Amino acid sequence: MTKAKLNIIKLNTIAMILTLICISCTPFSKIDPKANANTKPKKITNPGENTQNFEDKSGDLSASDEKIMETTASELKTIGKELEDQKKEENIQIAKIAKEKFDFLSTFKVGPYDLIDEDIQMKIKRTLYSSLDYKKENIEKLKEILEILKKNSEHHNIIGRLIYHISWGIQFQIEQDLKLIQNGVENLSQEESKSLLMRIKSNLEIKQRLKKTLNETLKVYNQNTQDNEKILAEHFNQYYKDFDTLKPAFY
């Protein structure tokens, strides 16, 4: 092959490469001139119309979100105030119970080697004593029931579920939620506020269900199960197994 032909091939190759580079760098609209041939630009009669509509919509959403947050915050503050007042009342009533010498939960142990923690016991008292309306008769009946079950070590887990899992668990969560409210609902995001409101309402409902269940238990005990360990154990296993097995608050 002659030198001239080689030069021609080199030139053609270089030209092809340059052409491909140009094509790859060219906008698609320029590669295909027919692509936009039938596309007519939209006539804008009012240049600010689209922008204004978008701003209005954004404004509506923002106002709506703000309103929801205000409503949620207001509801949380109301619940917080009610819980604070309730806690003060609990302190007064529990002090009276202690003074009148029927505060059995201060020294109550499920098992002989259980440790008594004052903070834990107080949370249990807040739940159980308030559920029994702080009445001496009701509190002493609950003590009788627990003492009957306690005689058999096989029933210790039944008592533990009522006292620690349910009663303490409810009060602990309510107090944690109250702290969040007291720290300032304004510091919470919209999702955090909604989640907190749903959770605290759910826990308060569980507390009402426990109250309903406890009072039903006292009725059953008065009617036909006094000193009947087996029936009491079956009753507790049915209704105090978990939060979900408590009786409905209203029915």
Folded structure, characterized:
The protein has 251 residues and is mainly alpha-helical. It has a single domain, classed as Orthogonal Bundle (Bbcrasp-1). It contains 8 helices and no strands. The termini are far apart. The N terminus is likely disordered.
Structure in a nutshell:
The protein has 251 residues and is an all-alpha fold.
Alpha-carbon distance between the two ends: 103 Å
Overall pLDDT metric: 81
Uncertain regions: pLDDT < 50 for 5+ in a row? 3-11, 15-61
Helical fraction: over 70%
How many β-strands, per DSSP? 0
Our count of helices gives 8
Identify the CATH homologous superfamily. Bbcrasp-1
SSE class: mainly alpha
Report the CATH architecture. Answer: Orthogonal Bundle
CATH class designation? Mainly Alpha
Describe the sheet with the most strands: none
Give the strand content: under 5%
Oligomer: single chain
CATH topology label: Bbcrasp-1
Query: Shape, please?
Result: elongated
Radius of gyration: 36 Å
Pfam families: PFam54_60
Protein name: Complement regulator acquiring protein 1
Coiled coil: 69-100
Keywords: Coiled coil, Plasmid
List the helices and strands and how they pair.
Blueprint: H1 3-25, H2 28-31, H3 49-99, H4 118-131, H5 136-150, H6 156-182, H7 190-224, H8 229-239
Helix pairs in contact: 3-4, 3-7, 4-6, 4-7, 5-7, 6-7
Describe the structure using short key phrases:
251 residues; mainly alpha; Bbcrasp-1; elongated; disordered N terminus
